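Submission sheet (multi-component)
Chains listed below:
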Amino acid sequence: MNNTFTLSKDLIDAVDGLRRDLGFDNVDSTIQYLLHNAVDRERKLIVTRLYQNDQKTMRQCAELLGVDLEEMINILRELHVSFNDDLAEQLEAVKKFTKGMQPA
Amino acid sequence: MLFVIDTSSLIVLKTLGWLNLCRSGDNEFIWPASVTQELRERKDDNKLILDLLASGDSREERVYKFINVGEISGTDAEVISLAAECNAFIVSEDKPLRKKAARLRLTALSVATLVTMLYQDGQCAKEECLARLRRLYDDEFLSKTEYHQILQGILP
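Outcome: structure written.
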């Protein structure tokens, strides 16, 4: 499918600069590569936000991105998403237990 | 102590080469059949986890009573249901799942707080606990702030 887009000269110059660094033969391929990466990253950011806000579990996020759980864990690490931002609650539970209380 | 461990934590333990934590002390690590099923569908390296099952130190448990945990289903719901049924701790790296479990008054830990608990319970030496926490920090399973927050509770 072909679509026509208008890009500013600055942007085309920037893409052309990257084209050389990335080793592409032409600007079209470079734009496709960059766009693919940008879409992929944006999808990951949107889904990890759902995880951060406790709206989706890790498994649900993996399903949304079409990856397995191990890959999802790696995506969260790559984006520096915390695995423990409920740490205070967890430590409180550990403290209660080690004081002799059983789990609820 | 009895722990229901989920796939995410088993993957993290495998990544760190720490599956032997599931063989430590008098602890028992169990998981629902759906976790085993999920692992079987994955790559060859999960043979390690399945070996752990075969060794008899950890085991698969049937879930008899399902708890309706809003918006989650399948394996996630089975992990929470099994923990409720057995009055066990949950070990999961999945923060939203831990929060849902906490709403049901279940205690849910990550690998980092599991390591801390084993130390606080006298099941592992301080040096070992500190080395494991450092590794979790180095491998980005703990942020710098979280790492220091845990250390504050351990170091005098």
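Remark: The interface with chain B takes residues 51, 54-60, 68-70, 73, 77, 80, 82-91, 93-95, 97-98, 102-104 of chain A (CB under 8 Å).
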